[in-house]
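Consortium newsletter contribution from the modelling node. Members have asked for a concrete example of what our holo predictions look like. Here is one, prepared for the pyridoxal-5'-phosphate complex that several groups have been discussing at recent meetings.
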Amino acid sequence: MLGGGAAERAGIVPGPGSGRASGGVHTVGLLVNPVAGLGGTVALKGSDGAEAQRRARALGAAPRAAERAALALAELRTRLPGVRVVTVAGDMGEDVLPGAAEVVCDRPLRTTAADTRRAAGALIEAGAGLLLFAGGDGTARDVLDALGGGFPAVGIPAGVKMHSAVYAVSPRAAGEVAAAYLSGAATAAPSEVMDRDGDDIVLYGLLSVPRVAERVQRGKVGSSLTGGDDLAGIAAEVDAGRRAGGVDVYGPGTTTHGVLRLLGVDAPPTGVTAVADGSCLAADADAAALLRLSTGRPARIVVSPIGGQGFLFGRGNQQITPALLRAVGRDGVVVVCGETKLAALGGRPLLVDTGDDALDRSLTGYLPIVTGRRRHVMYRVGER
Amino acid sequence: MTGEIAPKPPLRRYHAARWDEPLLFELSQPGQRGILPPALEPGLAADAADELPAALRRERPAALPELAQNAVLRHYLRLSQENLGADLNIDIGQGTCTMKYSPKVNDRLVAGHKLAALHPRQDDETAQGVLEILWRLERMLAEISGMDRVSLQPGAGSAAIWTNVAMIRAYHESRGEGHRDQVITTIFSHPSNAACAKTAGYEVITLYPDADGYPDLDALKAAVSDRTAALLITNPEDTGIFNPRIAEFVEAVHAVGGLACYDQANANGVLGITRARDAGFDLCHFNLHKTFSTPHACGGPAAGACGVSAELVPFLPRPTVEFDGERYFLDDDRPESVGKVRPFTGVAPNLVRAYSWIASLGAEGLREVAEIAVLNNNYLMTQMLKIRGISAPYAKGRRRIEQVRYSWEELAEETGVHSEDLGHRAADYGVHYWTSHHPYVVPEPATLEPTESYSKRDLDEYVAIMNAVAEEAYADPETVRTAPHRSSVHLNKEETLDDAGAWAVTWRAYRRKNAER
Ligand SMILES: Cc1ncc(COP(=O)(O)O)c(C=O)c1O
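And here is the predicted structure:
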């Protein structure tokens, strides 16, 4: 049974509201990745690394992060007059709106991931209640490294790659979301930080992002749980279908991670987890371990599609191999998904790319997706 | 001097009343009274409460607000000024709600003592008039839907859907098929369908639209089984797109032994054109407060009507109104009935209003209602689609029936202004505007439904307002985003709507929840 406090256990944290830092003033930390978005205008796939940045500049690219951060800040200041902004010197924040922010950290010589981490630490030290950062997936990963997922942050979309669910839908919306959180009108929930790795899309972890319906980016790739989604109902439905003595293999992601937490299993959201009779058999398990653990007893595979793209298998969860899928069978596949993420697919079918064509074909057709307790959506798994 | 009337600007310089009116309980002052009843005559019991059994007696008087008559009147008049009622604004912005004019003559009819003073426990013999109206209204609705019988008992659309689900359950149980535990619906059908099925204990399977916006027939075929109790579906759906394959949906459900139930709450686009029974449906319901013009009554008591085929007649709520050729009477002896879903025979004033409305129009008039509603909607759509940043997703280039779900996705991408913001700004011009049910399957949605009540001039005014608001979103997004500026209240905290710890529908709950905070 799932008792009260479900939201809390799913990692949803209230906004600070009246819990303001110093003397009733709301404080936001502003962090700009000055080279974010550099690659995009010249059709490079990203701006991570010195070589990509050099090439981008050589191709005539100009960064756009500062301009976008200025829009976000303007919106924040309209909605929350008197907000205190702490930031990093120079083009990592100070230059966005000169004179508008308190500089509490030097501009590092370079802007490496380590510099981002140091700067984020300084902003929190200076009393920030929320981190507002401008960048793309690379920046989000650095912020995740620095904050560890517990501290609230929201991204100003300024990068080339933005697969993560941590950005507002526009720079102004980022200001709006920050204002809503700082004033206590919004709570924060775990949201996926994802990045492309070759053809694969990898989940790096969960960042705590204020949830404001329709204002935080959805439908790209990463997801977060929004207000209307019934995570507790999904967890109860998954639990009710459990077979005694069976093993359940959970794919990565916010939804499955939320379900696991509600069922009392703490495992990293980035890996594949094997669970039996309510306890964790293996976290971050590899293909061989999963196959071994699920042989000789009833097994299910619980997965949630990758937001926006709709991949069920073959992206970000290759530990779930064709051999495992064949052993479990189509009937043992339990797809879980909040209604918001489903709506964001815009009617596009779910996809599978296991590397085994015959298996892929056998998975196509309609599958019931669990959206709540005794609630399903009949949804199509298409041919790629 | 000759007085000249200054020309009015093209858009109204509307401003809502803003009274900062406290709650009635906050206005209460000890000792204030609305009326002073005369003192008891000598010889009568000093306190009638003494006659009551102790268990029924309050220990302390109820904590009711104490106010003078004029204070109460002023309070409610002020609140009514801070409202945008159907009689005040061009109420076409609440798509799916089918806001139409409720003729005032019908209010006069039901305000008369003949109906207002009628008591539901009166002997049938003394209530022949109202029973005849109920009986005739039932026949009219049976004719409009093609169904065999109709119950007028439910107090609203959702109550009617609930009643239909209860009859579906009773039907299957009577045949020894109580194992059927699934109900199928679509994401663009009204959410009350899923909610009522869930409340009745059914597992709910929802179908999403295919690429053209139609409910996906293949998904239905994958969903049906011997566990299927029923399909609950709207047509046209919230998108305003009519499902031309509806008969195939019904067949697929019948093929596995399930029932097909048509949510015709809003039948405004199909009155006199299509009938539920002709498409094979076993049950349907109408919202009399939508299609048949009675007031919506802010969530009730309104009126819903359930129509059923002959096979389901035994399960209708009781009592039914019967006619033996001479007199009308109530039949309570219906052993298979699902029971009562509301006291007595339903909300009589609304039933009389609906009867009067239908009688005044006749069969041809009803069809004309649908035709004008559809014409109005397609004119409105043509004009709306000229506005920058808007689109009508799905079924490109095709006409819609009685409403359209638009999308401001393009405008939102270009300006950062969202559909809700446009709605808040529209309130500054004195009109209502609604987005969509959740989840937002159509991004940045807006749903408009003009019904037959509005003139071309009304529609043009609404379009002009939406055009001005959209243009403003491009030129001065700040003003739109921070709207409303000329309305009675600013913004509500929407987060609290989903927070059971925050909402309060009574003063007592309000105080309790706020003390706890
Ligand atoms: C199609 C449809 N069905 C059902 C309902 C529910 O009716 P009610 O609000 O009277 O409960 C509505 C009302 O919006 C509706 O539009």
